[in-house]
Design a protein that fits this description.
Layout: H1 2-15, E1 18-22, H2 41-44, E2 49-50, H3 63-79, E3 83-87, H4 91-99, H5 109-122, H6 124-134, H7 136-141, H8 146-159, E4 179-180, H9 184-200, H10 203-213, H11 230-237, H12 243-268, E5 273-274, H13 276-288
Parallel strand pairs: 1-2, 1-3, 4-5
Helix pairs in contact: 1-13, 3-4, 5-8, 6-8, 9-12, 10-11, 11-12
Amino acid sequence: MAIELALETELAPEAGRVEIVSADAFLVYRGLDIGTAKPTVSERRGVPHHLLDVADVTENYDVARYVQGAQAAIADILERGNTPLLVGGTGFYLSALMNGLPLTPKSEPQAREALELELSERGLDALLAEIERSNPAEARRMERNPRRVLRALEVYRQTGRWPGEFGNTRPLFGYRVAAFSPPPDVLDRRIAERSAAMFAGGWPAEAQWLAAEVSPDLTPRPTVWQTLGYEQALAVARGELSVQDAQTRVAFATRQYARRQLTWFRRQLGAELLDPSSARAQVAGWLGEK
């Protein structure tokens, strides 16, 4: 997102002692550069980045693996006397770092596959209603995220308990959170501009490469194909959708995601939503305390 990139390119070079630790679920994949708006080589120059390009697209990279990698990177940065700055918007990853990993049982592929089919047949609202009838607080915690809904139902049907009832491991580090966004009209314009730039920059070809590596038609759907916009970019590559229609759909989906993301930061991380300049000053002040 433009929010994360602004934090990386404006704050980090100025601080000097900062190393970026990505908290984005899809920047970990090698080869997904255009569609994830991955920082370029020039943007990374002078500021070390961690947890970019650490997995192949054929792998199912999960939150446990992320926490292990992020905590190792943070420990290494601190040991060298530098300051780690976590940047990103994958809420589940940030929550796991701040609050510990959920002590829920491991996912079972067959159960997950059955729930994927159920989602396609019944729809998200029906599955959310099932959670709501049993545990309204758990339903609110889902934030209408299909992956979280499926995982919650999988755990509940397996154990009779919801994920939120299992508790978490103890986090290794403490964190301070700064969440920010430009005004809605500015954010919407930037999203539209970025969507157009990514299609112009070769996104359809990147999606076509991804489809050759990992079929989007597998069940359950591979993790990498849950990355926003790649389905539309592939449709353009295959001549099934015009570039303009794809841009419009991706921009709309991104706006929806951005709003859910900001809501999640407020509700789950307890972060006050600031304007970019205020957040920049806040983080710069924290960095200056070291």
